[in-house]
Here is the input.
Amino acid sequence: MKQELSRAFSDQINKEYFSAFLYLAMSNYFANNGLKGAANWTYVQYQEELAHAQNLVHYLHTRSESVTYAAIADPSGAWSSPLEVFEAVLEHEQLITESIGNLATLAMQTGDHAAYIFLQWYVTEQVEEEGNVNDLLDKLKLANGNTNALLMIDSQLATRAFTAPVVPGVGANA
Ligand SMILES: [Fe+2]
Ligand SMILES: [Fe+2]
Here is the structure.
């Protein structure tokens, strides 16, 4: 793998770990504000982001590349409502979508077909990530601060369970 691409993979790994940390901070916010369902949803999202990072790590290892880890920034935000949290989620996921897109473009430009193919899973995953958050934002806007509606949304978010994503190109025991 070209060094430039390997470095960009490492940067993406650090971004995925930051994403995990951000969702963990959001889960903390919800747990402390009486919304256990949203706390669950964001905690599951934290687990997903860890898996995104780990699968990228395994991929680099498979390619005999080493990962450069950086310090993870403080993820705590000054959120004052569930709507603000999920608006921050959308904004963050849009940045990640852009970052994954740039990584895939770099893989293509450096002629790394294998890396380009591997990254397609992440490209598609981002469509789902943004779609889920947009759905949730629509519901929260409909609720318009109504406590009963908010609690109903919260009970739906309580049902989300983590299933480890299967990323093609990463062995089960990688
Ligand atoms: Fe991710
Ligand atoms: Fe994400």
About this structure: The pocket of fe (ii) ion (ligand 2) is lined by residues 19, 49, 93, 96, 129 (CB under 6 Å).
